Amino acid sequence: MSDSTANMASPTVSPLVSQLIQHIQQQPQQRITFADYMDWVLYQPGGYYSDRPGIGPTATPQGQTAGDFVTSPHLCADFGELLAVQLIEMWERLDRPEPFQIVEMGAGHGLLAVDILRYLSREAPDMVLDYQILERSPGLQRSQQQQLKTGLDPQLLENVHWQTWEDLSDQSITGCFLSNELVDAFPVHLVEVQGAERQLLELYVQCNDAGFGWVLGELSQAALAEYFERFALPLEAYAEGYRTEVNLAAQSWMEQVARKLKRGYCLTIDYGYKAERYYQASRRGGTLQCYFRHRFHDDPLVNVGKQDITAHVNFTALEQWGEAAGLETLGFTQQGLFLMALGLGDRLQSLASDATDIRAVGHMMHRREQLHGLMNPMGLGNFGVLLQAKGLRDHERSHPLQGLVVPPLGG
Ligand SMILES: C[S@@+](CC[C@H](N)C(=O)[O-])C[C@H]1O[C@@H](n2cnc3c(N)ncnc32)[C@H](O)[C@@H]1O
After folding, report:
1. Other CB atoms closer than 10 Å to residue 137's CB: what's the count?
2. CA torsion sign, 385 to 388 to 392 to 395?
3. In Å, how far are 78, 250, 334, 336 from 409, measured between CA atoms?
4. What does the alpha-carbon distance between residue 262 and residue 259 come to, in Å, rounded to a whole number?
5. Do 407 and 341 contact (CB within 8 A), yes or no?
6. pLDDT on residue 358
7. What is the pLDDT at residue 363?
């Protein structure tokens, strides 16, 4: 049992915790998969994402918010602006469709949307744009609406619509599906390798008066065993107790994107690896991490509903599932390289020549720090960037997209 969970008998447990206990107790074996638990504590009413999660810095310049983690759009507008450079090239490759549709999935507090929309209205005024947001959290939808209302001209705001997956017809989107740190927030199954025969078991969550705890059991679905076969993961090479995650929700998501896309691209940015690196034998504890006020740890059974829980993304799986569903893999790269290819290096270089007095030097240092943050190989710069496409004509794929062209050394 997890020792730091609130005492379940205490009258002070939150409504989320008491409903979750009830849900667990109603199950035939009084246990739920970790994926079910993660879905509850992140997305059900009272869950981490249900209201206004702490995405952002520890404190604003006014000293207000206390965020839990920072994503690229929260670092600076350059991230969204450089993605917009890539979107303009996509629009041109597709022969400037009217409208060019951008579907942002999991838009957080809406900062990325504001930065992209502002840049596009400035740099591609001829683009007839339809910007759709798919957001699971009602609290974040409200936050996005507020952010876009204050950050955009009313005219630009008219191009933005909040949708659900059900609102989108199959084969209806011509443009680009886009996400940053979406897939790592999907609920994952946890599995563990046990015994001399290296049997694959699943971790379930149960509860008693002391708190939530773990119990091992048989796999809840055959898809979990099939996943290990499909990606040729070497169970026999894993040590006893090897624990990892399987993100089956990512498969349904990839299939939805492929179905809804008529012609265009899917751009996915997230932390993660190709399968062989993700599931290497030395990564014995998996990649599950919890974020609480800019500290991370690996116990998802504490701070219930108050902390973010994430797992890295298996980009090989996204590629293969995408291909099986009709998407073509255009390329996989790292965020640092991707943004450099789109002009991050030029932005860095221009900073040096801008600094003419002491205040300008201070500003330049700050900007430099932000830009380096986006490409830091120990952090955001190491994120994976996957580009997939559907329905491209031969001439539209004759040369790689700008973001996939490796910038020359020193350039
Ligand atoms: C880690 S946050 C990233 C937010 C934002 N993209 C950013 O970079 O700051 C994950 C986002 O995905 C949303 N989300 C999770 N599952 C989703 C789903 N199935 N459909 C749409 N949005 C989802 C969450 O509510 C949240 O907005």
Report:
1. 22
2. positive
3. 21, 35, 15, 13
4. 8
5. yes
6. 81
7. 84
- CA 360 – ligand 1 centroid, Å: 36
Query: pLDDT per residue over 350-381, tens digit each?
Result: 887 666 788 788 888 999 999 999 999 999 99
| Probe residue for ligand 1, chosen from 182, 270, 271 as the CB with the greatest number of ligand atoms within 8 Å | 182
State the burial class of residue 284 (Cβ atoms within 10 Å of its Cβ: 0-12, 13-18, 19+): middle
Compute and round to an integer the Cα radius of gyration of the chain.
22
Token look-up 């600076």 returns 76
CATH fold of the domain at 15-343+378-400: Rossmann fold (3.40.50)
Is the Cα torsion angle 398, 402, 405, 411 positive or negative in sign? positive
Query: 143: Cβ below 6 Å to ligand 1?
Result: no
pTM for the model stands at 0.94
For residue 104, the model assigns a pLDDT of: 98
Residue having the nearest C-alpha atom to atom 25 of ligand 1: 137
